[in-house]
Amino acid sequence: GDHFSHDKVMSHRKFCHPRTGSLGFLPKKRASKMTGRIRKFAKDNAAAAPHLTAFTGYKAGMTHVVRDLDKPGSKQHKKEVLEAVTIIETPPMVVVGVVGYVETPRGLRALTTVWASHLSNDVLRRFYKNWSASKRKAFTRYVAKNKADASIMAKEAARIAKYCSVVRVIAHTQMSKLNLRSKTGHIFEIQVNGGRNAQEKVNFAMALLEKEVPVASVFSPSEMVDACSVTKGHGFTGVIKRWGVRKLPRKTH
Questions:
Q1: Nearest to 122 by CA among 171, 88, 189, 191
Q2: Residue 52 confidence (pLDDT)
């Protein structure tokens, strides 16, 4: 009889229907910490001047804006649309360290870190579980060693400039400038992009030590930026809310 072909047999919907829910948010579990993690910094551009590539802010609330939509093909094109917007409070961050990374076959390896001589309580609190009961000795030996020999920081900075291809600054947020209960600042690494070589990056980063960095020096008005944060969570939700599957009419099974 007729030649039987497998490709004419319809597959089961289990195997061919479009998937629901984004895989970008997996694993859906409790976050280890409440700060977003920068998984990838912007691509380096040697032609540009050295500059920072990220900044940290705190959600203050939400409001809405009315704007003209520029979306050819849409029915709303050149019409006013009302959109929800989030307001992020961004007090100046303080640079407290410079770290250099060497490229290896297994990825980046931190070579050395240069820390500032004066660290505020905003960042020192982060190194203790119980600030009030601690002796607050963090970095006291490091500072004393640098005072005794002022060339130590310069030597480590020179090592970063000589061997490293990726330079990042260690910066922390200033909780005292926010109307929040917490007094402990959050620490982040921010990559330095631009500059013809590592020496220019190191010079730029070392000049920022112990200085405040305003958000205007990192981002310009109306610039498109990527935001990474941690979800507020939705608890033990069911399959409809968790994966966005279709809710079937009653008595269909």
A1: 171
A2: 97
